[in-house]
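Example 3.2
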Amino acid sequence: MSFDVPADAYARFMGRYADPLALAFAAYAGAAAGQRALDVGCGPGALTAVLVGALGADAVVAIDPSPPFVAAARARFPGADVHEGSAEDLPFDDGSFDLVTAQLVVHFMSDPVAGLREMRRVAAPGGTVATCVWDHAGGSGPLATFWRAVADLDPGHPGESDLPGTREGHLVQLATEAGWERVDDGRLSVTIPFRSFEDWWEPYTLGVGPAGQYTAGLDEPTRAGLRDRCAELLPPAPFEETASAWCVRATV
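Structure, written as tokens:
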């Protein structure tokens, strides 16, 4: 899935969760000075920013299929090498990187096993491959309240719980099928504060990802009903939400 939306819209929607997750994920992946790293599905650059801070811009390569995201990442990280392209067909030589990462990408790959196989291919012997995906299936991802409200009003809608890697153990299964060996798995969580319900709700109206596209496709009365149901499910403001992601890593 390519996100054909402005980078700012994504930042306001998922960036509020992805930015703090990137700090935890980079540490889990073992990002350290001296490495050459590839950020697969970089988006506007949540994880790229952490990698640039840890390794230096000239040691970071990033790739994403979305032209608006590539443009935003190039402008944000002028010293990094940012490409437009897909995870399933990485335009890099075998063994090019010490660290290959993909944050919140696998569930949107057209062929997750092929994408994970490509990540392993471009990792150098002794290098690390690592990826993470929100726990949508387990109900502890950042969109859990939204999709619960959708289920209450539109019971037949699947939400994002059936996307690849979003259920416990599935990311390990996909990585193993892709040839990753001795896969280590874990779980990362971030807690995000919200000043008001509108602070929480407004990004859902920006058309980003499956949740934003679902909201944009509703007529105004139905959208208002969904908004009201979300408000009923959330605690009084100000409040916090904790979101969790499954993660895996392996040494090549």
